[in-house]
Amino acid sequence: MTLHNLTGQFLVHSKMQNLLFLLFILFISSCKKEEPVSQVKYNYLNQNLKTDYSFNPNSYWVYENQNSNIDSVVLVNQETGFTSVCPQNDCARNEFITLTFKSMSRGVSFNQYLMSNFIRYNGGGTFGQHGQPIHILNRDQGYQFNGLVVGEVFDSLQVSNTMYYNVEKMTVQADQQFQKKFDYDRDFYFVPSIGIVRIVIHDHKQGVITWDLKRYHLE
């Protein structure tokens, strides 16, 4: 056998080895299970809600009732994040903003929890399940959700000596709350980029108590 023939056989054998190796790699690759695509979905805050009702720490609102009592409400902390995923991975992670306030006259803290298109009072929880809704966007008048009733929108409303515009009224029916946060029915009057300008508490013992915004400062 000539050197030429030996060289040719070597080349053919080498090519066969390379081909077999390539086929082996392709076979192994085809046998690998595809990595599961993540099923986690993310829901984000309604941009209008975030723009109109998320404020910076050290902002404050001063209210006065008909008995000349004063209450200053100070925003002491803001926290943002996403809720956890459900154990069965069957619900989305929701963006949230927690605004923690302190009532200076009562010496108590509470929060407003923004998620999706609504605001909850003292909200939170692993999945954002806690709290009483006090505001919701994009719902018609009369819509009800966990004790919250969407009221009318006033083109203008005078509160104390100030005229406010595009005022949204929201009512919480105490006996319809899924999680009881308020003892009596309450009306909340919201103004975009300002916050709550009036709270009316329908107290069965003391009568109706109205807290009107006197002044405010936004950081």
What are the key terms here?
13-stranded mixed beta sheet; 16% helix; 13 strands; alpha+beta; 219 residues
Question: Quick check: average pLDDT?
Answer: 87
- The separation of the N and C termini measures 94 Å
Rg, nearest Å: 31 Å
Instruction: Specify the helix fraction band.
Output: 10-25%
Beta-strand portion reads over 45%
Principal-axes geometry comes out as globular
Strand tally is 13
Query: Helix- and strand-based class?
Result: alpha+beta
Main sheet: strands, sense, barrel: 13 strands, mixed
Map the helices and strands:
Elements: H1 3-31, E1 42-43, H2 47-53, E2 60-65, E3 70-82, E4 93-103, E5 108-115, E6 118-124, E7 130-136, E8 144-145, E9 148-159, E10 162-172, E11 186-191, E12 195-203, E13 207-217
Parallel strand pairs: 1-4
Antiparallel strand pairs: 2-3, 2-13, 3-4, 4-5, 5-6, 6-7, 8-9, 9-10, 10-11, 11-12, 12-13
What does the model show?
This protein has helices spanning 3-31, 47-53, and strands at residues 42-43, 60-65, 70-82, 93-103, 108-115, 118-124, 130-136, 144-145, 148-159, 162-172, 186-191, 195-203, 207-217. The protein is α+β, with helices and mostly antiparallel strands and 219 residues long. Strands 1, 2, 3, 4, 5, 6, 7, 8, 9, 10, 11, 12 and 13 form a 13-stranded mixed beta sheet that branches. A hairpin with a 4-residue loop joins β4 and β5. The protein is globular and about 55 Å long. Residues 32-37 have low confidence and may be disordered.
